[in-house]
């Protein structure tokens, strides 16, 4: 199942309602087809009800998320579009005047200004100039900002790398050449 020595994986797609009921009332976890573990005897460590309850709740939440996958996607996409509509038009108070003037800007999903929900919640794109390049703090800050950028579209990423970070961008790879 896994390449690591110690693992514990729950597969909600394999769990049935009867499996979940048995999970709550039976301490025998070894024969459950939706639990994959490196431990030979799961009963010893996981037989307490509290641990079984955590597994039960985790599986139920995962099953609900699978069930509502499309509505959740639509909700996230709608929220991202709404936030981009607000930011493209100067905020909530400017949408109506722009609409009446015919100057409303509709966000395009592939534009360099379209940010994901994550990007809208944290608009920072500039690296701190006070932190020395090559230091541990700089590398940590760079990895945090790069992980934030991983949710954005290619044009947004290219714009941030070129205009703010002064980095060349080649075909979905970060190639770090500083212009300075």
From TrEMBL:
Alphabetical UniProt keywords: Membrane, Transmembrane, Transmembrane helix
Record GO biological process: lipid metabolic process
InterPro entries: OBL-like (IPR044819)
Membrane-traversing stretches: 74-96
Superkingdom, natural source: Eukaryota
GO MF annotation list: triacylglycerol lipase activity
PANTHER family given in the database record: ALPHA/BETA-HYDROLASES SUPERFAMILY PROTEIN, ALPHA_BETA-HYDROLASES SUPERFAMILY PROTEIN
Name of the protein in its database record: Transmembrane protein
């Amino acid at each position: 199942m896994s390449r690591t020595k110690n693992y514990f994986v729950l597969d909600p797609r394999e769990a049935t309602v009867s499996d979940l009921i048995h999970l709550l009332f039976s301490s025998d976890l070894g024969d459950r087809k939706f639990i994959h573990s490196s431990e030979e005897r799961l009963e010893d460590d996981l037989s307490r009800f509290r641990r079984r309850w955590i597994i039960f709740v985790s599986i139920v939440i995962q099953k609900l998320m699978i069930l509502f996958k499309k509505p959740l996607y639509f909700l996230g996409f709608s929220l991202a579009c709404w936030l981009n509509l607000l930011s493209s038009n100067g905020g909530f108070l400017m949408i109506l005047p722009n609409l009446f003037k015919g100057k409303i800007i509709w966000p395009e999903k592939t534009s360099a200004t379209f940010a994901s929900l994550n990007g809208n919640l944290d608009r920072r794109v500039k690296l701190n100039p006070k932190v020395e390049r090559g230091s541990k703090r700089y590398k940590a800050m760079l990895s945090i900002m790069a992980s934030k950028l991983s949710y954005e579209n290619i044009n947004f990423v290219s714009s941030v790398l070129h205009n703010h970070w002064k980095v060349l961008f080649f075909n979905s790879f970060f190639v770090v050449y500083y212009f300075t």
